[in-house]
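During the reporting period the student researcher (J.K.) took over the structure-prediction task from the postdoctoral fellow and processed the backlog of single-chain submissions. One of the processed entries is reproduced below for the supervisory committee.
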Amino acid sequence: MHRRSHICTVSSRLFPVLPASQACDCVRCRTGSAAWNGAFILRTADYAHYLATVRPMQLRDKITSLGVDQRWPAMNFGESKGRGFDHVVILPTEPMRLWLSDHAANLKPQSRAKFYVALTRGRHSVAIAMDWGTSPLPTGFSLYERAS
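J.K. obtained the following structure tokens:
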């Protein structure tokens, strides 16, 4: 699958006993806007701006998931399996949010697999839409900041 190393680093933490995901080294995966390459925590206040600027595929658990902007394309996690997008934004479930805050938190196998699929759909970037408190960001993530 086509993806950059920062996405592999983040997604591999879901299954630490398995071999780490490997980054793709093809030309398509090595090009693109450097400003949007990475793994981001995306504040909900910046969600509409991010969609309009980056144009990611919105990924959600199910069609009834809250937070989807109907003006932009969206897919369920399972529906996105086997597909790739330059950029994705994930609307995480509560257990996924808890796991991001504490990797020791219980994340059931089906949720873990869905989250892995969602995290690995982006070639250049993955953003997690959630408001983050004052605790340190998860390893491998940075806070999305609007370009000045």
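The committee noted the following: The chain has a mean pLDDT of 83.
J.K. will present the remaining backlog at the next meeting.
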